[in-house]
Write a structure and sequence with these properties.
Pdz3 Domain
Amino acid sequence: MRKAALLSAFTAVVGFLVGLVVAGTSPSGQTEALPLRPAARVTAGMATPTPAPDPVPVGAAVDFAPVAARVNPAVVNIDAAVRTDDRGRPAPRYRAGDDPWAPTEGSGSGFVIDPSGLILTNYHVVENADRLTVTLADGRTFVGSVVGVDPAIDVALVKVPAREPLPFMAFGDSDALRVGQWVCAIGNPLNYVHSVTVGVVSFLGRKIFDASLDAFIQTDAAISFGNSGGPLLDTSGRVVGITTAISAQASNIGFAIPINQVVAVLPQLKEHGRVSRGYIGVGLTSVTPLLQQGLRLGPSRGALVQNVSPDTPAERAGLRTYDVITMADGVAIRSDEDLIRYISGRAPGLMASLEIWRDGSSRPLAIKLTERPLVEPSRARAGRGNRAVRPVSGREQGPLGLSVRDLDEATIARQGLPTAIEGVVVIDVDPAGPARLARVRAGHIILEINRRRVTTAAEFMAAVAALKQGEVAALLVFDQLSDQRVIATIITDPPS
């Protein structure tokens, strides 16, 4: 089993998903959750299954019985055992009996993608395992070995030594999914092997753990502990996702990794055992009408640079906050996700030719990619934050619905902020005000308003006073929890 309490960071729209847990592994009769460790068609040399029938037309009756009968033989149960000794191994999933020397165990799901015995599952199902036991629907068991893992999207490729071809599944196209479309999940929830559940696609592109890579399929098909790594299928029986997480606060909110995202990294998993992604080191957001208005941007589409991390390709190439990236190697960039997907799909060491808009004109910029580092889970930074920042009652909050004070050296030291930072610290936010809606919170450091630097509370109040009713205020904010600069857009309230 896997569990994670998700910190509602400023840059991630995950408020209602606090308490979300990985749909991990569970022994029979137990429901103890584990902490989460922070996901043209490529076939990666896989065999091609017999073509599945086309998806059921809209409005037609949906019957997953023939689908389940056809694909169930390719769904597997994966049991992971981890030795418990003095070598600093991970905490147990559950203990097998009372023997202190017994291995800790957990189980999840997976599915065969090639008759030679290649199996896809979740990384958290096989993580740190000393022994993997894979059980097929017909009862055959194999000792599995890990071929490759991609912790960034929680995917693992496992191999079993099959003596004869195994039944396997066909890939679908997760990019073709639509909200409201019927889907089916098959797995081993709570060790109830080969359970079939049906629901619809509730949302596409959900951000949960890593806002830069996540694009989860949300579904109301019942998913429980032990479903992790199992297939999510369309009405034709093609795999469109890998079930990976559930909400701890509801029984009908589950998440799956889009299969297209998995297929894209399969060649690297097979050949290298790991995945390398291109990286430039910027924090991005998409250009919106509000940002275009507040920052007087030329392009109406593109990836807006919010933060440039030090000692990264972006810094070395001269990218700046407020730059808008509109093209990459001749490919149009319409959003931050377009750029992230393009850069992460290229190999480290390659050059990328960007077109950026800066201060009224477009210009080319060449940048050399490095390898994307593994992102530290946000929960590991939960100890940092604004515990020393106290709201001041009765302070005028103004048209933005927040109040600030000067940022002094004591606050910088106490909160572990960069020593060179200049701005004002937010000390109070109106729970029903416009700043709250823009996810500005106490402890954030406001650096600029509409590209105008504010280094004191007096400068901040002067900048706010110059705003007209209904005008867009674009705040450049430093969020110490994510250690990033981000841009928040606030529409000013009328005077009270």
